[in-house]
Amino acid sequence: MTATPPPAVPDTAPAPSVPPARGGFSLDIERRTIPDAIRDYLNRLRSGDPGALPSVLGIVVLLIIFSQVSSRFLSHINIGNLPGQGAYIAVIALGLVFVLLIGEIDLSAGTTGGVCAAFAAQGIFSHGLQHGIPGLLYAFLLAALIAGALLGFLLRMITAPLFVVVGIILCSPAATSTSSPSLIIAISVGTAIGIFTGWLVAKVGIPSFIVTLALFPRVAGRDPVHPRLSADQRQSIRLLERSG
Prior knowledge:
mainly alpha, single chain, 64% helix
C-alpha cells in the first residue's frame, strides 16, 4: 500500500501591484531622447509618412525662387515685414485648428475676418461706427449683436455672449471715439457670427461645409459696410490704383 501525496496547496501570495500608467499615451511613461526622436522620424519617412517635410521643402523652394526674382526679398526690411503681413493669417489659422480637430470645416473664416476688419476700420477712421456706416446698417449691426448674445445665453454659453454684450455696450456713440473699443466691437461681431454658425451646425444639424459655404462666400471681396468716402479719400484711392 503506497502513501498518497498530500494535496498541493495553492499559492495564495498576492501578486505584485502594477502602478497604473499615467494617461493612455506611451510618451507619458517612456523617456525619449533626441536621437530616439530622429530615428522615429526617419522610420516614419521610410513608411511613407512625410509629416511636415513637404511644407518645409515648399517654403525653401519659394525662398529660392523669390530671392532669384528680386534681390530685395532677403533684405532685413522685407524679412521684417513678412511676419506683420502674415500675422492675421496666423491668428485665423489658430482658430481653424480646433475646427479641424473635431472633423469639421469652416469656409467663412476669411470672409468673417474681412467683415470684422471693415467694421474696425470704419470705427477707427470715422471716430465711431455711427458716423462711418449708414444708419440702417448701424441698426442692423446692433440687432444682430443682440440676437447673437441672446442665442448664446439660450445655448447656455457664458464667455461668448458676455463678450458680445461688451460689444453692444461699446457701440454707443461716446464709447467708439478711440481705436480700442472699435477693435473690441469687431471681435464681438466675429463672436456673434460664430455663435450663429455654431448653432446651425451643432443644434440644427446642418453640415458645417453647407453652412459656411452658403452664408459667407457670397459677400467675399465686397465691402460690407459701404463706407462714405470723402473727396480726398477717393483721390488717394485713384493715386494708389494708378501707381499699382
